Amino acid sequence: MLVHGDLGTGEQLDGSLASRAIERKPVRGLRNVVFVLGLFHLQMAGADAIWRMFIEPKAQRTEPNGLKPGFRLMHDLILQCAAARMLDIWRVEVEKHRSLEEYAASSSWLDLERMSLLLAEKYLDKLTAKDDIGRVENMFLCWVCIFKSVGKHKYASQLVKTMLDLKFVYPERLARAIRLNWLCNPTGRHDGFRAVDWLVELMNLYIKVVYGSSGYARTFQLILKQSPLIEVFRRIHQTMQDNFHLLHRSVRHAPPDLTNTIQALCDLLRKNKAHEFDDSRKSYDLKHHMNDGLYLLQSTVTNKLSTEETAGEIEDIDVDDELGVDDLEADL
């Protein structure tokens, strides 16, 4: 039985396995349960790691090409800054030979594909796809080094354990079952793959918050009784919206128009020459988090963490407190 969850879920399962180790029957000893680290919580940990690398250091806040918003904007920041930086990379590479307007007017679709592959090879180390678990797994080692460098040692240890289990511990059929069930597709769209723990968090939100009632009516028995009816409630809600032409106005928001935001970011990147060499530029010393994390990974014991290493990781277990309807339902 595969159990998807965050680090807190994994630690509770480990505690249950340790307390039931004396049981002779595998079922009573929970030896048929396999913990799978949820990719949704791993994504949140990655956003926090980026915050620790580029926003938390005070020196980075004065860098014109640095990142400046607060932690709550991290997810939007990553997507918007990535889009603006990719557009600026196109501008820098194309303008080495001709203007963007000339290139757009004279290039075919095949030329655009060829240029995209060249830019990806030059500027990106790995490409991931939401429906390709193999490429996601290939990124684990990179994130292990980053997590070790920024002090998220628990996630680094769990990722190392996950990689070793999949490659050397689990039988081939079990490892294949985990890889095939790491993602789910609630909508059936080609790009609609989501982590299983994301779906679990969404259902928990609907059961406990949206349809969990309030006051004296909010009881454990009522929540347990209504939990199988969540999809029915959602369909009724959707039917009422459609009948009254209130399309996506009660829970979901309309997608934002990012044209001006992306344009402002592109103008700022062009002004500061973010992707061009400038010998007059002055900046603070950059830390190579990949190299530092790899050194820590090779020079420290991964499965025995000191108190100092884990002191800053209490928030990793309680990330659910920051989740809301918009966070979980935005991609549906």
Brief digest:
It is built from 16 helices and four strands.
Structure description:
The protein contains 16 helices and four strands. The chain is mainly alpha-helical. The model is unreliable at 125-130, 302-312 and 314-321 (pLDDT under 50). Helices cover 56% and strands 4% of the residues. The strands form two sheets. It has a two-stranded parallel ribbon with strand order 1-2. The protein is globular, with a radius of gyration of 23 Å. Helix 1 links the parallel strand 1 and strand 2.
State the total count of DSSP E strands: 4
SSE succession: EHEHHHHHHHHEEHHHHHHH
Provide the spatial order of strands within the biggest beta sheet.
1-2
Question: How would a crystallographer describe the biggest sheet?
Answer: 2 strands, parallel
The helix content, as a percent range, equals 55-70%
Structural class: mainly alpha
Beta-strand portion reads under 5%
Terminal CA distance: 27 Å
Query: Given the C-alpha coordinates, what overall shape results?
Result: globular
Are there runs of 5+ residues with pLDDT below 50, and where?
125-130, 302-312, 314-321
